[in-house]
């Protein structure tokens, strides 16, 4: 068993705001004003999307480096959706500054579907919660 990530959040005075610490990094999490927050930082579902797109970018760059490919500058975006029936899904978009061959487009889509965070989200994850006293 290995820990591959760690984060801690501590409440702040403002409703819904918290200070997140992960390794040497710190940032604020909050809810949008429309949900009663101060919109000082990303909301929890924004962080899920951020994790997915960050992993996608890193995985594609690692793949390209390993294969000696030049992907050029690109961006990855994601939207988290939920419908009235409670179905949830994420739509991820890749945009490349330079044109890609059809073969490379297909490989990029294949690699994107196999990133570690993609796999985790697709299979779900068990969450165990304990009280620490």
From TrEMBL:
At the top level, the lineage of the source is: Bacteria
Q: Name one Pfam family in it.
A: OsmC
- Read off the InterPro entries from this record: KH_dom-like_a/b, OsmC/Ohr_fam, OsmC/Ohrsf
Q: Which SUPFAM superfamilies match?
A: OsmC-like (SSF82784)
Q: What is this protein called?
A: Putative redox protein
